[in-house]
Amino acid sequence: MRYRQLGSSDLQVSEISLGSWLTYGVGVEADQARACLEEAFAQGINFIDTANVYGRGAAETFLGEALAGRPRDSYVLATKLYFPMSDTDRGLSRAQVEKQLEASLRRLRTEVIDLYQCHRYDRDTPLEETMEALTRAVDSGKVRYLGFSEWPAERIQAAVDMAGVARFVSSQPQYSLLWRAPERDVIPLCAANDISQIVWSPLGQGVLSGKYHPDQPPRAGTRATSDEMGGFMDRLLQRAVLEAVQRLKPLAAEAGLTLPHFALAWVLREPNVASAIIGASRPEQVVENCGASGAKVDPELFTRAEAIVGEALGD
């Protein structure tokens, strides 16, 4: 496993990290989830990402129990706030930052969160209020560093320009061969301000593994067939996309890689990316994905892959 600097922080994070969206505490049984977590550590993963809204606290609760007893300085723990936790609890107001931080600390059974992230931008709360509340969280010692997820470029710039507040060190966008939107504005802006990307869905929710074939229904037990985990995949399961993914397999083979390794290596080719978050329901998936760390690929193969996918997506 290779490690990269996370923005302007002093954190070194593994190139592959373990996420818990739609999985731990929700779609994956506890014993299996614990086995995935143990395998992640065995493979050298040191960065664990979650959010308060995942299972309405269930993912944080699972991690708090599963991480108990492990040396706190042996892993980097990240969580998020913004999405509704109740009919009245949502957003990034001063009150919500204080309330949700305390709740996350309690569920995660820790005294400090290494990376506290704004899960989306809150247009109902002044940015100044949010940044002041986040800065107090850092000053209190309960949070080490700050990040955001899926913020528009102009709001990132506004936060960067604000004086007297704690700085963001990370951005968490969706990014993969199937979704390259961050390249237009977010990655250049962040790179210029020492903010690293921690990307989610680098395998297009498993589609870039090549396991979904255009002429066959999804196999039982895959994410696409899960009521808990398959609800966000319609765009990615279109025939043209699945056919394009199949055409990537010879390119991966030419690089001496599996298709998942090739897709993850494509994400990690971007210097501004510090880590790619994987989701795993089985330990062997963790092992497979970790093999992408440090992979060397001829850039020409990536260029050909981009052309194949771009044609399928109409880009």
Describe the structure.
It is a single chain. The longest helix is centred in the last third of the chain and has 16 residues. About 3% of the residues have low confidence. Strands 3-4-5-6-7-8-9-10 form an eight-stranded parallel β-barrel, surrounded by five helices. The protein has a two-stranded antiparallel ribbon with strand order 1-2. β6, α4 and β7 form a beta-alpha-beta unit. It has a single domain, classed as Alpha-Beta Barrel (TIM Barrel). The protein contains ten helices and ten strands. It is globular and about 50 Å long. The protein is of the alpha/beta class and 315 residues long.
Furnish the topology, listing elements before pairings.
Layout: E1 3-5, E2 12-14, E3 16-19, H1 30-42, E4 47-49, H2 58-67, E5 76-81, H3 94-108, E6 113-118, H4 127-139, E7 143-148, H5 153-161, E8 168-171, H6 186-192, E9 196-199, H7 239-254, H8 259-268, E10 273-278, H9 283-290, H10 299-313
Parallel strand pairs: 3-4, 3-10, 4-5, 5-6, 6-7, 7-8, 8-9, 9-10
Antiparallel strand pairs: 1-2
Short description:
This protein has 315 residues and is of the alpha/beta class. 37% of the residues lie in helices and 14% in strands. It is built from ten helices and ten strands.
Descriptors:
alpha/beta; single chain; TIM Barrel; two-stranded antiparallel ribbon; 8-stranded parallel beta barrel; globular; 37% helix; 10 strands; 315 residues
Summing up helix and strand content along with how strands pair, one would put the structural category as alpha/beta
Please write the string of helix (H) and strand (E) elements: EEEHEHEHEHEHEHEHHEHH
Q: For the record, what CATH class applies? A: Alpha Beta
The largest sheet is:
8 strands, parallel, barrel
- The CATH superfamily is NADP-dependent oxidoreductase domain
- Indicate the overall shape: globular
Terminal CA distance reads 34 Å
- Give me the Rg, rounded: 19 Å
Quaternary organisation of the protein chains: single chain
* CATH architecture grouping: Alpha-Beta Barrel
Number of helices: 10
Task: Give the averaged pLDDT, no decimals.
Answer: 92
Helix content: 25-40%
* Percentage of β-strand residues: 5-15%
Number of domains: 1
Low-confidence stretches: 224-231
Count of strand segments = 10
* Strand order across the largest sheet: 3-4-5-6-7-8-9-10
The third-level CATH topology is TIM Barrel
